[in-house]
Amino acid sequence: MNDYLYEVARRLIEFDTVSANSVVPAMDYLAKEFASRGFKTALQPMELLGVSQANLVAWAGPPRSDGLIISAHVDTVPYAGQPGWEREPLKFEAAGDRIYGRGTSDMKGFIAQCLDAMRTQDLSKLKRPLVFVLTASEEVGCLGAHEVAPALKQILGECPVPKLAWIGEPSTYEVYHAHKSIVSFGVTVRGIGGHSGAPAKGVNAIAVMGRVIEAIGRLQEERRMSPDADFQTIFADAPTDVINFGTVRGGLALNMIAEECVLRISYRTLPNADPLQLYREVEQRVAAIDTHDYASREHRATIEIGLPMVVPPLNSPRGTALERALFDVTGAKTSGGALYGTDGGWFTSSGIVSLICGPGDLDQAHQPNEYIRREPFERGTAIVHKVIERLCNSD
Ligand SMILES: [Zn+2]
Description:
The chain folds into two domains: about 5-180 and about 315-395, Aminopeptidase; about 180-310, Alpha-Beta Plaits. Helices cover about 30% and strands about 25% of the residues. It contains nine helices and 19 strands. The chain starts with a helix and ends with a helix. It binds zinc ion.
């Protein structure tokens, strides 16, 4: 058993890096660890969603082109209020062939492997740059990556920004080169309140929201009826854009006309599309709906569509040196599409080709009693070493 690997993972799980909290203490710890191995480090401080956050960049190797970025997010999804927990979320607990704790699979286990690999990495042997990029606020819309990807050139200074990024998101060591975009926004219907006994004096916002949902639901149906042949294998479950009604809230009481109703919605578009095209279609459809209440033709509701938050898609070219290295080293035979979004979308926007491949188990990510299996956890240090050997140590 490798003590340092377990020690780093234990420390990382103990930092409560749920996205609503600051990751800065965890980043400070990681920066110290990388610096103690001889890396240059830089924290990129920022304020995200009202919280002080930071990304960490740690780099080594000669200032040549064609190096490698290895990337992971440090934040996790929440655990408080999530039913089903039978273990301490912030306690790193090994039991049988599993290691439990929030973030073990997604994706602190991978970060521990990276640091463990650096324990025995001779940085003077690097022939190309090796750059670790650790991000904040991935789970709330890849906000950290949005800041760090375009800033890498400035942060790295004379060291050229590598064109390849390996993101160790949970994939049970399968390789993914594509994922859909994620776009989220709110729709607010404002009606006119009043007593439910006199509906004609008001406009019920819930009633009008029903029409909004119907209009957007039709769009989803149309998309479902015309799947994209190019993505039949990559996204076998849904080779189309998909729309999800996330939450809807409206009304105060049974005897009151609902004055306001708010829908939160997200969708995922195929990686070859402009992520905002569907948003514009939603705007058009919603603009065309009848904003009267069913109870009266007298008054109208107003509908406001909020600004979209966008996580860009990933659609990396096949056959890169990183893909070959990941195939050889992990035993993966082909590359597919991930069901989730990643920081890779923002790397792509900065001209960095990203691939996803990591030790965690997607079925465990975001789950109560999250765990990583011992075997892929312990195997990962060697995998990190070998990928670096291929991409940074050879001519
Ligand atoms: Zn993740």
